[in-house]
């Protein structure tokens, strides 16, 4: 039930810990397998040294026991070499950050995807007007059906998500167009602790999406209203008001990487590390952080009427829900029912037994439910330290879709078994979750 360790090449624990965390995410490995399928046609043996995706896939498959290896300790120097080809100069003799390397890998994979040849779009007039392309396109379309087009350059990696930024004017309540930004990981600051209350991951998430006031912003709607009040056609200065800004998650990824910002600064400007423990659970509910498109009242009434006609009583959108005025008899569902009326900042613990009971009773409390797969921990201060990883043991080969309940503690080439309680009591730096798609959903 153990996995291979990784050789420390000189302060490379940051890379070793990240690779162990990524190897515990099956969706990411599956995406790499689909992405690298396009290179199998190349018979060149040096392809492994030219493509980051191929090199990373071989390492992660070996660390997840999907490739047979006789070595108990693997050498990941090939990853440093291919990253140097991508113009990332990562020295193995200096202190590095695992979260920074995570962004180097995801951005380099996107660069590799964007370098793949694309098919000319039908509305790309400039390209279609070229003589050689026009002749080729016409002959291709008149002689028969087009061959299947590889879609690898389109596919986003499983850590890719989108943030929404919503701006509303405090004066006229006019809402600006929603802005979308991409993210590969959620970098959460740790809010100030309240005495007597433990700090939880839900506190950090609520702090991340909490609204903030932005002063001195030009409001086009307020300017328009002011101009309509002036009849003599005088020029109107731009009206500056205060806006309320709020972030939410527009698209939740299949694999969720959460980075807890433990860097702070003293009054003298020196970097400090925050060592407080942030409580997190094996299962994470993300529904309340998801952005939902506002629906007008008239449209909402029509939608509710349609749902009432298409679904049976006791269901919502075809999914069974708790009837009003009833109570759960099973104690395992106490935490689930409390979630529906939980106040912001309340951490809800979802046990494995509760999920099994939910499946049995066809209850669906959450659409965006995530399971913890790995935790990267940093020991030490901001100037020196060591990265270790807690990760799940790989599933047995006979059932690759199963999720093991056995946890491992890995420090470079040292691997031992660990308990879930030890994992949840660690001071997490990076958290790797994977979305759970239940049969009910």
From TrEMBL:
Transmembrane keyword on record: no
Keywords: Hydrolase, Protease, Thiol protease, Ubl conjugation pathway
Single GO MF annotation: cysteine-type deubiquitinase activity
The organism's place on the tree of life at top rank: Eukaryota
EC class: hydrolase
GO biological process, one term: proteolysis
Catalysed conversion reaction: Thiol-dependent hydrolysis of ester, thioester, amide, peptide and isopeptide bonds formed by the C-terminal Gly of ubiquitin (a 76-residue protein attached to proteins as an intracellular targeting signal)
Cellular component annotations (GO), alphabetically ordered: cytosol; nucleus
Family, as annotated: Belongs to the peptidase C19 family.
Name of the molecule in the record: Ubiquitin carboxyl-terminal hydrolase
């Amino acid at each position: 039930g153990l996995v291979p360790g990784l050789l420390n090449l000189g302060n490379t624990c940051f890379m070793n810990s990240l690779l162990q965390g990524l190897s515990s995410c099956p969706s990411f490995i599956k995406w790499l397998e689909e992405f690298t399928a396009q290179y199998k046609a190349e018979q060149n043996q040096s392809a492994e040294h030219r493509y980051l995706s191929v090199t990373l896939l071989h390492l992660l498959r070996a660390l997840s026991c999907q490739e047979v290896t006789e070595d108990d300790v693997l050498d990941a120097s090939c990853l440093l070499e291919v990253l140097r080809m991508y113009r990332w100069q990562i020295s193995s003799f200096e202190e590095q950050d695992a979260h920074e390397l995570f962004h180097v890998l995801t951005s380099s994979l996107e660069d590799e995807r964007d370098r793949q040849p694309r098919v000319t779009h039908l509305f790309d007039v400039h390209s279609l007007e070229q003589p050689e392309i026009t002749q080729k396109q016409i002959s291709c379309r008149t002689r028969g059906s087009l061959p299947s087009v590889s879609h690898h350059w389109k596919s986003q990696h499983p850590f890719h998500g989108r943030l929404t930024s919503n701006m509303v004017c405090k004066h006229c309540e006019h809402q600006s167009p929603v802005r979308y930004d991409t993210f590969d990981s959620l970098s959460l600051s740790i809010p100030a602790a309240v005495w007597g209350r433990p700090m939880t991951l839900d506190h950090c998430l609520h702090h991340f999406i909490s609204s903030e006031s932005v002063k001195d912003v030009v409001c086009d709607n307020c300017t328009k209203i002011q101009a309509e009040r002036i009849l003599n056609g005088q020029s109107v200065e731009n009206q500056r008001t205060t806006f309320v800004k709020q972030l939410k998650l527009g698209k939740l990824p299949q694999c969720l990487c959460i980075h807890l910002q433990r860097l702070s600064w003293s009054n003298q400007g020196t970097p400090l590390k925050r060592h407080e423990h942030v409580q997190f659970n094996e299962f994470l509910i993300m529904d309340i952080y998801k952005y939902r498109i506002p629906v007008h009242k008239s449209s909402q009434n029509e939608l509710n009427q349609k749902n009432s006609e298409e679904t049976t009583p006791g269901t919502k959108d075809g999914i069974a829900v708790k009837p009003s005025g009833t109570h759960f008899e099973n104690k395992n569902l106490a935490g689930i029912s409390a979630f529906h009326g939980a106040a912001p900042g309340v951490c809800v613990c979802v046990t494995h037994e509760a999920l099994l009971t939910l499946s049995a009773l066809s209850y669906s409390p959450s659409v965006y439910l995530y399971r913890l797969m790995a935790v990267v921990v940093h020991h030490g201060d901001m100037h020196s330290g060591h990265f270790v990883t807690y990760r799940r043991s790989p599933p047995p080969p006979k059932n690759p879709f199963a999720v093991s309940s056995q946890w491992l503690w890995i420090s470079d080439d040292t691997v031992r078994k660990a308990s879930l309680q030890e994992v949840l009591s660690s001071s997490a730096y990076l958290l790797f979750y994977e979305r759970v798609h239940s049969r009910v959903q």
